[in-house]
Design brief:
This protein is α+β, with helices and mostly antiparallel strands and about 500 residues long. Helix content is about 25%, strand content about 25%. Bound molecules: flavin-adenine dinucleotide (FAD).
């Protein structure tokens, strides 16, 4: 079904914009109707033109669109596509994936472009924007079906109108559903409900061969499992059905300071294994001397009707946080989900949102989390994290993480550690230094049985990916062969 309003061939409405009419297979260039050079498209002999399928949306080749698609939140990697599809319908994605497939052109789906190392980019291929697929369907029972381009913030608002909510959120909620379902989607509720992948009951996808398929745990389960957390290697998610739970009306938010790493990690572990709170995370920040030795355990108790009224004495019993400096605040549930909004606005205002973000995201095995975290933190100075940067460190429960493509260390309580670095985008020497530091840190973690959480900026080879997927590799490779036999999808991940 076309999206509203129908825009079949509405390109003619853009008077100043050249309209792509086809592809010249000899010169491997898009052909525009006006003969002007538009971005990567040049005029080519019309007798070699292979006409474009009719589209509800727009195929863009103007410089601004190509430049936007050659960037992401990392601002480190820039691969320029030859065209960008702003789909007017799922049928557009099917048609263009088939078209590209037949011509050996790579295709990169792009949600909000918030990965940090070119994962949603392609040099010379087609970027498919999913943001127009932002429809949120009716809440039905305890599920909702949404388009892949819907933002989690919009999904939350729509479901909260029914007293329901997705059970797991990332810290920042302006990410696309398709984007986080391709990588994992972890948050403070993960120890209770798994990752966002574990909350999906059905997917609609367009495979690399251009087939529109509905899959679920019981229908084309191989595809379902390969797509969730599968880094876009087998199919483009176009829609997802998400499980919902009763939403709390208010939450109580606890921030508990610690000055000892081992005590901090042990208390976090205790909380997630006991399940006392609905949400548990933690942060490490720089002390006055610049060392990363200040720890804050962040926990949230949901109020009615999703949980009992919070009882501070019970919830905090036995915790060994520093006596001074604990903060406890009550807030509305949506205000809690959207808690980063003010900080993000301030970063944007200060221009820091546009800085380079060579992020390090790793999972540490629980049994060696303390020495590993200590050694990684010891190597950090304020310049390695940067203004507005932060270090997250919190435990997950492996038994709740059930999707095979989301790799986790072989340990019941692995820890996610994210060094969310920021540095000036033009400072290539610092960017290169931090990328090298990420690789060194990754190798240290890997050699102790840890893994990367694949949203950051760690230089990675195809052999590293094989290692990363480990026992899940044969499933991913088989699904790739079956559903994307020409290997056109999502080259920016560098998996195949
Ligand atoms: C400020 C910030 C905070 C974050 N916080 C968290 C957090 O708390 N927890 C967490 O888990 N992650 C977090 N992330 C990481 C985030 O989950 C990933 O970067 C996610 O992929 C971003 O979604 P996106 O829509 O921007 O995806 P994109 O960056 O556009 O795409 C990510 C990858 O998925 C592919 N892809 C995109 N859409 C689709 C689709 N529909 N079908 C198939 N493949 C697709 C892309 O090609 C790319 O390879 C955060 C990122 C930022 C910038």
């Amino acid at each position: 079904m076309p999206l509203e309003p129908t825009r079949r061939n509405a390109l003619h409405g853009f008077a100043a914009m050249a309209v792509v009419i086809g592809f010249d297979p000899l010169n491997r260039l898009w052909v525009t109707d006006d003969g002007r050079q538009e971005g990567g498209a040049r005029r080519a002999a019309s007798d070699t033109l292979e006409a474009l399928p009719p589209l509800d949306g727009t195929l863009l080749v103007d410089e601004a669109s190509l430049a936007a698609a050659a960037d992401d939140y990392g601002h480190i990697v820039h691969r320029t596509p030859s065209a960008v599809l702003r789909p007017g319908s799922v049928a557009d994605i099917v048609a263009m994936v088939r078209y590209c497939n037949a011509r050996g052109l790579k295709v990169a789906p792009r949600g909000q472009g918030h990965t940090t190392y070119g994962q949603a980019q392609t040099e010379g291929g087609l970027v498919v924007e999913t943001s127009p697929l932002d429809r949120i369907g009716q809440v039905s029972g305890n599920t909702v079906t949404v388009g892949a381009g819907a933002l989690w913030s919009s999904v939350a608002k729509a479901t909260l109108a029914h007293g329901l909510t997705p059970p797991v959120f990332t810290d920042y909620i302006e990410l696309s559903v398709g984007g986080t379902l391709s990588v994992g989607g972890l948050g403070g509720q993960t120890h209770r409900h798994g990752s966002q992948l574990d909350t999906v009951t059905e997917l609609k996808v367009v495979t690399g061969a251009g087939e529109l398929i509905t899959c679920s745990p019981t229908r084309r389960a191989d595809l379902f499992r390969a797509v969730l957390g599968g880094l876009g290697q087998c199919a483009i998610i176009v829609g997802a059905t998400l499980r919902l739970v009763t939403a709390p009306e208010t939450v109580r938010h606890y921030q508990l300071p610690y000055s000892d790493l081992e005590t901090f990690l042990a208390d976090q572990r205790r909380l997630v294994t006991e399940g006392r709170f609905s949400y548990v995370e933690g942060q490490v920040s720089a002390a006055e001397d610049g060392s990363f030795t200040t720890y804050v355990l962040e926990a949230v108790a949901y109020g009615p009707p999703a949980g009992p009224a919070p009882d501070d004495t019970q919830l905090l019993a036995g915790l060994r946080h520093d006596p001074a400096g604990a903060q406890i605040a009550d807030m509305g549930y949506y205000a809690f989900l959207d808690r980063l909004a003010a900080g993000v606005a301030a970063l944007k205002e200060a221009g820091l949102w546009d800085w380079a973000h060579p992020w390090l995201n790793v999972m540490l095995p629980g049994d060696s989390a303390a020495p590993l975290a200590a050694s990684l933190l010891q190597d950090l100075g304020p310049d390695d994290v940067g203004p507005g940067g932060v270090v997250l460190l919190y435990p997950l429960l492996r038994e709740r993480l059930r999707q095979p493509m989301l790799r986790t260390p072989d340990d019941p309580v692995p820890y996610l550690m994210s060094v969310l670095r920021a540095c000036p985008p033009g400072d290539t020497a610092t960017v290169d230094r931090l990328l090298a530091a990420n690789r060194t840190a990754y190798e240290t973690v890997r050699d102790s049985g840890g893994l990367q959480y694949p949203v950051g900026s760690i230089p990675f080879t195809a052999a590293d990916w094989r290692d990363h997927f480990g026992p899940a590799w044969p499933q991913l490779a088989a699904a790739r062969k079956c559903y994307d036999p020409r290997g056109v999808l999502t080259p920016g991940q560098g998996v195949f």
